[in-house]
Design brief:
Length: 351
């Protein structure tokens, strides 16, 4: 543990002795530790002190850990705490998949050594602090975007007073950002048609300059699904450089509803989400919509989940610590009907 970072950790277990043992261990590493002996106590304590990490037993006096995990993740006031669940080794086969599909970030099988426990807690805290940093960067980015929109408003006012046609498009010709009123005067066509279908702008481009641009304008439509709003914003920012992100979903149930309504070309889906996991949601969608192009995202390098994803028909399987270029490559490959798997696990997964 890094003593320079003081994190808030909530321990939830009905075993008072185990609680005090873990509290002493974690307190020695400069963390603020508080405890609860039931799900209801845990919710009250979490709302009062907002933990960075919750470590909870799958079996609690007033319910199971999966339900508590979902409620903690769903409460926006708690800022998405990371959740580690644990149970005895004999219960692992029964609880591992439901726990991760229910939104848990890690699973511990008891008994566990102090060294392993501390190492896994360190990983989760590192991820949590990284996501918090990303949230602040996203907030700063949004503030910058607001300033840019203000500048854009000024530019629009200027452009609307000139007689020449002025347009602004994204670098990949996927979206028309702005088209001046002079377009309607000179071409006799409605600007709304160009915003709805960017390809019509080709008529205003000299034939010798059109080659390659018509294909670029037909970019695939992508639907994103992840229960972390910060990650959704980041993914959207990455993919919008090449693709049309039509909407986002925060859980498997919402993913199914939006996919049926929007019929996107590609789904980019988190494996572990509340209410309904990503893999199960995709299986249900395939029964309703037929063949789908799906890229799964995951924090877990566990080959069990990779195998399940491929069985569900995944065209891509990307680890969340991959680079943006790797994600873009995976979605490009899926768009072409090809398969991409993160190199870190590709060899083992394809065996």
């Amino acid at each position: 543990m890094e003593s320079t970072v003081k994190s808030r950790i909530l321990l939830v277990d009905a075993d008072e002795g185990l609680l005090h043992t873990c509290a002493r261990l974690l307190g020695a590493f400069h963390h603020e530790v508080f405890v609860a002996m039931s799900g209801s106590e845990a919710l009250t304590a979490a709302k009062s002190r907002v933990p960075d990490l919750v470590l909870l037993n799958m079996m609690l006096p007033d319910g199971d850990g999966i339900d508590l995990c979902r409620r903690l993740k769903a409460d926006q006031a708690l800022h998405q705490p990371h959740v580690m669940v644990f149970s005895s080794a004999v219960d692992k086969a029964e609880w591992l998949s439901p726990a991760l599909e229910g939104g848990a970030d890690d699973y511990l099988s008891l008994p566990v050594t102090n060294r392993e426990l501390l190492a896994r807690i360190k990983v989760q805290l590192r991820l949590k602090h990284a996501l918090d940093l990303l949230a602040r960067e996203v907030e700063a980015h949004l503030a910058t975007q607001a300033e840019l929109r203000q500048s854009e408003t000024i530019l629009r006012r200027i452009s609307e007073s000139i007689e020449d046609v002025l347009w602004m498009i994204t670098p990949d010709f996927a979206r028309v950002v702005y088209l001046s009123p002079a377009y309607e005067t000179l071409w006799g066509r409605e600007r709304s048609a160009v915003y709805e279908e960017p390809g019509t702008l080709l008529h205003a481009i000299h034939p010798e300059d059109r080659e390659g641009k018509d294909c670029a304008m037909k970019n695939p439509r992508v639907l994103l699904a992840d229960d972390h709003q910060i990650i959704l914003h980041a993914l959207k920012g990455i993919l919008e450089s090449e693709f049309q992100v039509v909407d986002t979903a925060a859980n498997g149930v919402e993913l199914i509803e939006k996919a049926e309504a929007l019929r996107p070309d590609i789904l980019v889906v988190d494996v572990s989400m509340p209410l309904l996991g990503g893999i199960e949601a995709v299986k249900q969608l395939r029964k309703k919509l037929g063949d789908l192009k799906v890229v799964f995202l995951t924090m877990h390098s566990d080959l069990v989940f990779g195998a399940k994803a491929m069985e569900a028909g995944a065209k891509g399987y990307v680890l969340k610590h991959a680079t943006p270029s790797e994600l873009l490559l995976a979605v490009r490959e899926a768009a072409q009907g090809r398969t991409f798997v993160s190199p870190a696990i590709a060899g083992q997964l394809m065996e």
